[in-house]
Design a protein that fits this description.
Helix content is 23%, strand content 42%. It is built from 3 helices and 6 strands, in the order ααββαββββ. It has a 6-stranded mixed beta sheet with strand order 2-1-6-5-4-3.
Amino acid sequence: MSNDLLRRCEALLFEEARRLDKREWDEWIDLYLPDATFWIPMWDDEYTLTDDPQSQLSLMWYPDRSGLEDRIFRIRTGRSSASTPLPRTVHLFSNIEAQAADGSDVQVYANGEVMSYRHKEALSFYCHYEYGLRETDAGLKIASKKVVVANDVIHDIMDIYSI
């Protein structure tokens, strides 16, 4: 894997974080391919995650980008009472690694923390990220995103912008 490709992968993750923090929903959703999956598995027990979003519970599962588009619509129109008011967020990434996958895909792993502030309370989610990135004519795009939330307790809302 070339250093240039790793830098491009890092740049895409940083751009996604910036778009979420600035609430640039159209630019954020444009980072995802139409058939991109978005998954946050649940902890089945202390050390085991659910592994099939089709047959097991997940914290969030969208089999394609339309689910993310629906979340954005609900946030924008106020139809997401859990997102009113929207928290201020800061996304941080570290330990970014990339490796070639099938065809033109790249598998990217990262750790991160998302801090948010809402209702005079600061919260953090600690996450492990697994991205499938795909080369397109427009550059790298997100083909899949899996977020493993390491927190034991979720004190407030968890949505696309808070993880």
